[in-house]
Amino acid sequence: YLCKMPVWIIFTLGFTAQLLFFSRTLIQWIFSEREGRVVSPTLYWQFSLYASILMLFYGIFRQDLAICIGQMLVYAIYIRNLQLKGAWGQMSFAIRLFIIILPFVVLGWLTQYSGDLFAGLMNNNDIPTIWVWWGTAAQLFFTFRFIYQWMVSERQKSSELPLGFWLISVTGSVMILVYAMFRLDPVLLASHSVGVLLYARNIYIHRISAIRKSSARPIIKN
User: Higher model confidence: residue 41 or residue 190?
Assistant: First the structure.
């Protein structure tokens, strides 16, 4: 039975996914510090996509609807950003096909062959209803940052990580930390504790960059 696999394997899967999520943010922060402005490197989106695949499986094995919803909502946005960066077309057709169909295959398999697990995903008795709603709301809010980022990027016709993205990130991450403390989830606790600091740093970089641009503008005298 899928959820009867050793707990250490499940948590290893989750920590691996979160390590990739952390690595993407760390890489993005290093690039931004070097450039003196917030940038959106290709590696950020590549790591995001691979981590999302792992995190989707982790959410299923943990029977955590909030995690699964969050990953399914951002999956296509990661792909779209890779398209905007010109990196999606550089992948082999087989890899792209695998990435596209994987979420549908997993969810289809769960629905058809593992009804009890899917039911548990939808109604986990170990989590009070109020925390299911809180966790779901936190994941949805945290996920909205990528919807916002996608809308801005489509307007700019390039992959961008605007200030609003980081403001939403900080707020959503704090909400998830509250949820993680209730669930005693070490994966979420570890990732979002560090994430809040990096998100706040990007807000600072945005502010400093905006001040520099403002001061660099020539003063037009009438």
Answer: 41
Average pLDDT value for residue range 61-87: 84
User: Over the stretch 3-60, which tens digit does the pLDDT of each residue have?
Assistant: 567 888 888 988 899 889 889 989 999 999 998 889 999 999 999 999 998 988 887 7
Prediction pTM value: 0.78
Residue showing tokens 């706040």: 200
